[in-house]
Amino acid sequence: MNHPKLPPLEAAWQTLRSSLEWAQEFGLVFVFCSDRDAKQALFQRANDLMQTQVRPFQRPEARQATDLIQCLLPIAINPASVHVDVGMPLWLDLDGHPGAASWDEARREFLHRLNERRAALVREHGRTVVLALPLDWTKPTAEAAPDLWTIRQPSVYLEPPETQGFAQQPPSSVQVVSSVSTPVAALHSPPSRDLPAAVLRWQAGQDRGQAVSPWDAAQAIEAALASGHSELAWPMAQETAQRARTLVAEFGKSPERMRDLAVALHKLGDVAQTMGRLDEAQQAYRESEQLTRTLMTDFGKSPDRMRDLSVSMGKLGNVAQALGRLDEAQQAYRESEQLTRSLVADFGRTPER
């Protein structure tokens, strides 16, 4: 069954909301926009959500290009401890005066210098940072901040209503040189305007030979499933998992690359389960589970890793139940429950937990 396409602002909000609701560690979200009214409406929704958690956004203002470096950058790099302690999210508007040379240069310098602090940001600043940039700044952003680009949450795109067609969709990633190739011709099939925007961005990236980030790929796969296009979601999920495997093999086992692979395997399992391929779903979920356990052993427990493992066990329980293996399902569900209880006990209560 085809679901109606969400209005652009609503689609953007659903993407941003998912990043905010689960945020317990450092998270980075890029908002690429050319519609200032829609951006303000998006911010208001985000701020209202965080107000319910008594953590409203910090949103300093930049009046001139030099403010990006002199005022906004220090806040991003060296936030007040009270803001970090409560996890107060930060919203920085870097999209002023698009096309102006002085602003463009300041944007590049801001991103480059923030990128240099990537490790410290992840280690020390447990809060969400939203960076609003001009709509056509996906490629300049990835070039100026390649390390941050690889760990970002799903990106948000806001366009004026008159340009919200497929042809004007911005690319969701930049080209990455890799030995990974797309094995399935269906990924390059002619785009349909009836497909969700996330899927169209995926197809556009594939047609340009660009590597879509794992998070944008996950979003596209979820959108394909939700709109009833499981036959398209399957090769997308296969390609995403294979790309993630190859990146781990070529560049080593970093926490980010292993998490990306675990997420890709979750999506592969979701699509397989939807299509009734239960053995393949179980295999994907089990591999994701093992990756997450390795991450916890090698790099320590974190809320994200404990939640990921709990989700894996829940999914394995669902598959075991569908296969009639009730004892195996019960064991998986029990561990999932225990992990969630430990998450609450070790890291505190939140509505999601």
Describe, in plain words, how this protein is organized in 3D.
The protein is mainly α. It is built from 15 helices and 4 strands. It has helices at residues 8-21, 36-51, 66-77, 81-85, 101-116, 118-124, 138-144, 146-151, 197-207, 214-226, 230-251, 255-274, 278-299, 303-322, 326-347; strands at 27-33, 90-93, 128-134, 156-158. A 4-stranded parallel sheet has the order 2-3-1-4, with helices on one face. α3 packs parallel to α5, α11 (230-251) runs antiparallel to α12 (255-274) and α12 (255-274) packs antiparallel against α13 (278-299). It is globular.
Order of helices and strands: HEHHHEHHEHHEHHHHHHH
As laid out across the biggest beta sheet, the strand order is: 2-3-1-4
DSSP summary, beta strand count? 4
- Report the principal-axis shape: globular
Summarize the amount of helix as a percent range: 55-70%
**SS summary, helix count:** 15
Beta content comes to: 5-15%
Quaternary form: single chain
Rg measurement, Å: 20 Å
Mean residue pLDDT: 82
Poorly predicted runs are: 163-193
Global structural class: mainly alpha
Strand count, sense and closure of the main sheet? 4 strands, parallel
In short:
By secondary structure, the protein is mainly alpha-helical. It has helices at residues 8-21, 36-51, 66-77, 81-85, 101-116, 118-124, 138-144, 146-151, 197-207, 214-226, 230-251, 255-274, 278-299, 303-322, 326-347, and strands at residues 27-33, 90-93, 128-134, 156-158. The chain is globular.
